[in-house]
TrEMBL record:
Keyword Phosphoprotein: no
GO molecular function: succinylglutamate-semialdehyde dehydrogenase activity
Protein source organism: Croceibacterium salegens
Name the record gives this protein: Succinylglutamate-semialdehyde dehydrogenase
Active site: E230
InterPro entries reported in the protein's UniProt record: Ald_DH/histidinol_DH, Ald_DH_C, Ald_DH_CS_CYS, Ald_DH_CS_GLU, Ald_DH_N, Aldehyde_DH_dom, SuccinylGlu_semiald_DH_AstD
UniProt record similarity statement: Belongs to the aldehyde dehydrogenase family.
NCBIfam families attached to this UniProt entry: arg_catab_astD, PRK09457.1
Entry keyword NAD: yes
Gene from which this protein is expressed: astD
């Protein structure tokens, strides 16, 4: 540990963007532990003032920050700018969430005196970030952790270390010390050591189900450690009766292919009423064929960039070929348009007749289509997954949406809206393999402070009851 070299490469060009050594976990945790008590002792108002200063620092660096995100992830500039805006918006949302989720509550108790629930920070929180939103998603954990009075160690994805480091620098510039917000670079080895470190009180994770399960397993003998897992999805879109086919296909494209499909909330399965199939496929294909794919700063601006690296591109094309050779019928083909770079074109494949569809998260622009005859079958098909993050119904009527909402197992359910782009001011998280409870967005505050029941009398006053001899 500490010897490993981390190198981040721009997906769109193959050029090296950043290199640095993996951090030392013990030293990082020790530094946080020494600094933490003074931070926790600050009044809440002071911590709020400092995170508001952070939002000014982000504002001052808006362009540079967006450019860095675009270069390091390959996402188009319009998307990178949206990500920076989400980082800024998260500040006020997190302040509100902390107040709302942890507000002091008086207990009506039969005891004399008073009783209340107050909240305390856990101590040192490890934030493990993903590469798809390397600023916005870890920030959604860093902010509530800091506001609650924790020290934070961010381990960014080893694919996006530069963005993670820049985010933390902006917190430092705002006046939060480099011991209270630290970045720890590293890969799985450092991640595992950080999670298991006895000096770390909680883990706030965003990433794949596989990595989340590994974390959960590592903490199995340590039930007191906080763990928030925001994992993946195999998210369905059900397309039902609508006169607005083209609007519907736009929503499908948006759900499946923004961020090159690298969203936990991206649509992976389109479940469509059989009678609409031909018309919808024709429009979906022609819309998808019009997608401009390119590097972040290309003109005209692309809708979609590359995926994160060649490994990811290989896995996706292999998955497409697997579906193809096991009964899938292509609507559009997934291709690699730029030699040696991880660009892939969106693949849409009809897998209705496949004997068995793999229930895994294929993290990229790959959409399976499944034809069904009636609405109950559509709901059953949508629920035919161990994941449960996001689901959308497009078309249908209010009664159908009510049935959909009531019967779909997912944390986020939408009507005539994409599966992605979930609100930061709502609870965010899934069921099943998608995560534990509501680990992100508004309810992330729940993981950052713990309620203490406090019963209070200003002076000790007591009399012993039955079972004593007279004094
Ligand atoms: C998405 O919908 O693609 O703040 C991600 C959050 C959520 C993330 C949503 N708004 O954690």
């Amino acid at each position: 540990m500490g010897e490993n070299l981390i190198i981040s490469t721009e997906p769109a060009t193959g050029e090296e963007l950043w290199r640095g050594k993996a951090g030392n976990v013990d030293e990082t945790v020790d530094r946080a532990r020494r600094a933490w008590p003074a931070w926790a002792a600050q009044p809440l108002a002071k911590r709020i003032e400092l995170v508001r200063r952070f939002s000014n620092e982000v504002l001052n660096e808006q362009d540079a920050f967006a450019q860095l995100i675009a270069r390091e992830t390959g996402k188009p500039m319009w998307e990178a700018r949206t990500e920076v805006e989400a980082v800024i918006a998260k500040v006020e949302i997190s302040i509100r969430a902390y107040a709302e989720r942890t507000g002091q509550r008086k207990l009506d108790s039969a005891l004399q005196g008073s009783a209340a629930v107050r909240h305390k920070p856990h101590g040192i929180m490890a934030v493990l970030g993903p590469y798809n939103f390397p600023a916005h998603l870890p920030n959604g954990h860093v902010l509530p952790a800091l506001i609650a009075g924790n020290a934070v160690i961010l381990k960014p994805s080893e694919k996006t270390p530069a963005t993670g480091e820049f985010l933390m620098k902006l917190f430092n510039r705002a006046g939060i010390s480099a011991a209270i917000v630290q970045v720890l670079h590293g890969g799985p080895e450092e991640g595992k050591a950080l999670v298991a470190h006895p000096g770390v009180d909680g883990v706030l994770f965003t990433g794949s189900a596989q990595a989340g399960i590994a974390i959960n397993r590592k903490l199995a003998t340590n039930p007191g450690k906080i763990v928030a897992l925001e994992m993946g999805g195999n998210n369905p879109i059900v397309l039902w009766d609508t006169p607005k086919i083209h609007d519907a296909t736009n929503l499908i494209v948006q759900s499946a292919f923004t961020t090159a499909g690298q969203r936990c909330t991206a649509a992976r399965r389109l479940i469509v009423k059989a009678s609409m199939f031909d018309e919808v496929m024709a429009d979906l294909k022609s819309t998808t064929d019009r997608i401009i794919i390119g590097a972040p700063f290309d003109e005209p601006a692309p809708f979609m960039g590359p995926v994160i690296d060649s490994n990811a591109a290989d896995q996706l094309t292999e998955a497409f070929l697997y579906l193809l050779s096991n009964g899938g019928k292509p609507i559009t083909h997934m291709r690699r348009p730029r030699k040696g770079l991880p660009f892939v074109t969106p693949g849409i494949i009809d897998t209705t007749d496949m004997a068995e569809r793999p229930d895994v998260e294929l993290f990229g622009p790959l959409l399976q289509v499944i034809r069904v005859d009636d609405f109950d079958e559509a709901i059953a098909e949508a629920n035919n997954t161990r994941f449960g993050l996001s689901a959308s119904l497009i078309g249908g009527n209010p009664q159908e949406y009510n049935r959909f909402w009531a019967n779909i197992r997912a944390g986020i359910v939408n009507w005539n809206r994409p599966t992605n782009g979930a609100s930061s001011s709502a609870p965010f998280g899934g069921v099943g393999l998608s995560g534990n409870h509501r680990p992100a967005a508004f309810y992330a505050a729940d993981y950052c402070a713990y309620p203490v029941t406090s019963t209070e009398m200003e002076q000790p006053r007591s009399s012993l009851g039955v079972g004593f001899r007279d004094a």
